[in-house]
């Protein structure tokens, strides 16, 4: 399966369990692996035969900077769902969301979730 990788997309959101996270917000980093057939785009050299990276970024921005959720797991699930709704040629997706400096005891660089979804599993 062919892949489009978009790495290190950065957004500011208000996701988290604690009131200070919902009030102050923080930066979130998203990595996406979009699985689709890119052979037609490779032969035609036409954007409409692929998935527009700018549109992918806008869908991700809308989700991550949108309605606050308690868990980044829920953000990742919503992001995968929206990608399937937006791009008919998308067959599978891997979403990684990284939350730097989570407000939990101890010293952490970040907390992350990674989900993998296929179109037939999309709601």
Fold topology:
Blueprint: E1 2-13, H1 19-24, E2 26-36, H2 39-44, H3 53-64, H4 72-86, E3 92-100, E4 110-118
Antiparallel strand pairs: 1-2, 2-3, 3-4
What is the name of the CATH superfamily?
Answer: GTP cyclohydrolase I, C-terminal domain/NADPH-dependent 7-cyano-7-deazaguanine reductase, N-terminal domain
> Per CATH, what is the topology?
GTP Cyclohydrolase I, domain 2
Number of E-type strands: 4
- Number of structural domains: 1
The CATH architecture assignment turns out to be 2-Layer Sandwich
Please state roughly what percent of the residues sit in beta strands, choosing from under 5%, 5-15%, 15-25%, 25-35%, 35-45% or over 45%: 25-35%
The largest sheet has its strands arranged as 1-2-3-4
Question: Which structural class matches the secondary elements?
Answer: alpha+beta
Q: What multimeric state do the chains show?
A: single chain
Low-confidence stretches: none
Query: Mean of residue pLDDT?
Result: 94
Binned, the helix content reads 25-40%
Main sheet attributes: strand count, strand direction, barrel closure: 4 strands, antiparallel
Instruction: Report the end-to-end length measured between terminal Cα atoms.
Output: 22 Å
């Amino acid at each position: 399966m062919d892949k489009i990788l978009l790495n290190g997309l950065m957004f500011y959101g208000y996701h988290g369990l604690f009131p200070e996270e919902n009030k102050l917000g923080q930066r979130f980093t998203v990595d996406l692996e979009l699985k689709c057939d890119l052979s037609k785009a490779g032969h035609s050299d036409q954007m409409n035969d692929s998935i527009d990276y700018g549109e992918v970024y806008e869908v991700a921005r809308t989700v991550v900077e949108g309605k606050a959720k308690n868990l980044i797991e829920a953000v990742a699930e919503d992001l995968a769902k929206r990608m399937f709704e937006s791009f008919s040629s998308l067959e599978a997706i891997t979403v990684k969301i990284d939350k730097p400096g989570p407000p939990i005891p101890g010293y952490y660089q970040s907390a992350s979730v990674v989900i993998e979804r296929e179109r037939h599993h999309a709601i």
